[in-house]
TrEMBL record, chain A:
Its cofactor is Fe cation; Ni(2+). One of its GO terms (molecular function) is ferredoxin hydrogenase activity. It comes from Sulfuriferula multivorans. Coiled coil: none annotated. It holds the Pfam family NiFeSe_Hases. Keywords: Iron, Magnesium, Metal-binding, Nickel, Oxidoreductase. Fe cation binds at C70, C421. PROSITE patterns: NI_HGENASE_L_2. Ni(2+) binds at C67, C70, C418. It comes from the Bacteria. This is Ni/Fe hydrogenase subunit alpha.
From TrEMBL, chain B:
NCBIfam families: hydrog_prot. One of its GO terms (molecular function) is aspartic-type endopeptidase activity. InterPro entries: Pept_HybD-like_dom_sf, Peptidase_A31. Pfam families: HycI. GO terms for biological process: protein processing. This is Hydrogenase maturation protease. It comes from the Bacteria. It comes from Sulfuriferula multivorans. Keywords: Aspartyl protease, Hydrolase, Protease. Belongs to the peptidase A31 family.
Length: 433, 154
């Protein structure tokens, strides 16, 4: 009998959220996975300390710096928490425009991920540049959709990267009617493109890899939850953001500076597929119809359906932005006055990558005493490890090294973690005995 | 529809403002941004650079450049210098080279593309650019203004 020893080490040298490093260590011996560790270094932990002592007026702009791709999520979540603590009720205009602003971020982030990061895998391409050679129209369409999302963000935030639009109590600025009219025309024109994107995404063959996991997302009585709602799980939990700590726990692993999150001591899924699993009944009718045409059955237990889920959420975001911008009027004031008070408050929204939870303790002057931020990537970290283990077993550990590496990269990219950019650099060292 | 675009790329980090300074210097020479000519500063645009070049017949791109040469040294690049780039792309690392390579594959490059790199030194966030960079940006702006003048855009 031949004894086979096989060690696979995958190194991800670049960043998680702002900058940093991540690595995947995979060791296979005698046909079994003996080590599988996803290591992430997570700068937002430093941001939590940076926030201490700063005024509530600075917080939305500071937390926007945590992520260049989903700054609106951080701004909106921080503002929501502080507004709750200060007893601020947004005016209807600001409430609606927060959602529109957030839709812009979903559109750009999802389109970026689909076309620049995830899709090349499914066509045997190393990059979007290679993909552009075989699917140029689809890539062009993706870039147009991404640019539209950026434009929507710029409208409310002055710029799409680290926007500065949100303030506690509303917005700093209200776009002019002419600007809204112009963007509505563009949003309307993008609807058929987004519908075509869904059809394209759903037509891409994906591995059959059903797994058991708990989906966690926000849920709202009437909306497809983005910027408000309860936290719900696929096994029946339904809680306010304040109760997050009671049901979800974070812990350190010695090999990672990022925290791992668990629900009932188990990994769980956040992000587009979890949202779609829990909220597909809240989609607009047109989106529901299109989703039904794709044949995708929900809830899905196959993470490779995440690409289609993102495409569906792009169309949803376009519909929502159009709906909320209909009959737009420039408000008398884009914000309401705020009087700070001491206390503790939490906020929770759906970042493009999943549930984002903030907790702030504030003093009477409105300065941060301490802060906690639980981002989606750290919540998904345990699930990614679990998925990799199950998915590799499903694929077969006797597959060639390149196939194993590509599969690991694809699995990781399904989650759109902030380390996804680096997974193209995965290096694998194989030892055979 | 604008047909000529001057795009200065940078960030607020020391010498990385080279592209922005070139745009500032160009505008101070009364080369006005207008209907046929757009002069714009971009902050690390990533893939968004591609739509900025759409429908333009001539694009002049200025960016900071890490090199072994002197700080402030200006270099002009041809397409043969970057056509083969296709690795290492990410949402965070999708730079000018990647955007140009993608635009090339998509057939989105303008008829004429002038890419200038200005050799830089320190790129500390929040710091002012060095004197060498400021001088180089002004010199490059003069060169671009002359080019534009020859095409009657100045």
């Amino acid at each position: 009998m031949t004894e086979q020893k096989r060690t696979v080490s995958i190194h991800v040298p670049v960043l998680t959220r702002v900058e940093g490093e991540g690595a995947l260590d995979l060791r296979i011996e005698n046909g079994e996975i003996v080590e599988l560790r996803l290591r992430i270094f997570e700068p937002p932990r430093f941001f939590e300390k940076f926030l201490e002592g700063h005024s509530y007026t600075e917080i939305p702009d500071m937390v926007a710096r945590i992520c260049g791709i989903c700054p609106v999520a951080y701004q909106a979540t921080a503002a929501q928490a502080l507004e709750k603590l200060f007893g601020v009720e947004l005016n209807p205009w600001a409430q609606a425009m927060r959602r529109v602003f957030y839709c812009g971020e979903w559109i750009q982030s999802h389109s970026l991920h689909i076309h620049l990061l995830a899709a090349p895998d499914f066509f045997g391409c190393n990059s979007v540049i290679e993909l552009a050679r075989i699917a140029p129209d689809e890539v062009r369409r993706g870039l147009r959709i991404q640019a539209l999302g950026n434009e929507l963000m710029e409208l409310f935030g002055a710029r799409s990267v680290h926007p500065v639009g949100i303030r506690v109590g509303g917005f700093h600025h209200a776009p002019a009617l002419s600007q809204i009219s112009a963007i509505r025309d563009k949003l309307r024109a993008a609807l058929p493109e987004a519908e075509a994107l869904i059809r394209w995404a759903a037509s891409i063959p994906v591995p059959q890899d059903n797994q058991a996991f708990v989906s966690v997302a926000m849920h709202h009585a009437s909306d497809y939850a983005i910027e408000r709602g309860q936290i719900v799980t696929s096994d029946g939990l339904n809680i306010e953001a304040d109760a997050f700590d009671t049901h979800f726990a974070e812990h350190h692993e010695p090999f990672s500076t990022a925290l791992f999150s668990t629900y009932q001591q188990q990994p769980y899924l956040v992000g587009p597929l979890a949202r779609l699993n829990l909220n597909h009944d809240r989609l607009p009718e047109r989106v529901k119809t299109l989703l039904a045409e794709t044949g995708l059955t929900l809830p899905s237990r196959n993470l490779f359906h995440s690409l289609t889920a993102r495409a569906v959420e792009i169309l949803l975001a376009l519909h929502e932005a159009l709906r909320l911008l209909e009959g737009y009027r420039v408000p008398d004031t884009p914000w309401v006055p705020v009087t700070p008070r001491a206390g503790v408050a939490t906020g929770c929204t759906e970042a493009p990558r999943g549930l984002l939870w903030h907790r702030y303790e504030m003093d009477a002057d409105g300065c941060v005493v301490n802060a906690r931020i639980v981002p989606p990537t750290s919540q998904n970290q345990g699930r990614i490890e679990e998925d990799l283990r199950l998915s590799l077993l499903n694929l077969g550990l006797d597959q060639p090294d390149d196939a194993l590496r590509l599969h690991c990269e694809q699995v990781i990219r399904n989650y759109d973690p902030c380390i996804s950019c680096a997974t193209h650099f995965l290096r694998m060292k194989v030892e055979r005995g | 529809m604008s047909t000529v675009r001057v795009l200065g790329i940078g960030s607020p980090s020391g010498d990385d403002q080279a592209g922005w300074l070139t745009v500032d210097a160009l505008l101070s020479k009364c080369v006005l941004s207008g209907h046929e000519l757009v002069i714009e500063k971009l902050d690390r645009p990533g893939a968004s650079l591609i739509p900025k070049m759409e429908n333009a017949s001539w694009v002049i791109l200025v960016d900071a450049m890490q090199s072994t040469g002197q700080v402030g040294q200006v270099q002009r690049f041809d397409q043969t210098d970057w056509a083969g780039y296709c690795q290492g792309l990410s949402s965070h690392g999708f730079g000018v080279l990647a955007a140009l390579s993608l635009a090339h594959e998509l057939g989105c490059l303008p008829h004429r593309l002038d890419v200038y790199g200005i050799g830089i030194g320190q790129v500390t966030p929040g710091e002012a650019p060095s004197e060498s960079i400021q001088v180089a940006a002004k010199q490059l702006a003069m060169r671009i203004a002359t080019d534009l003048n020859n095409k009657q855009f100045a």
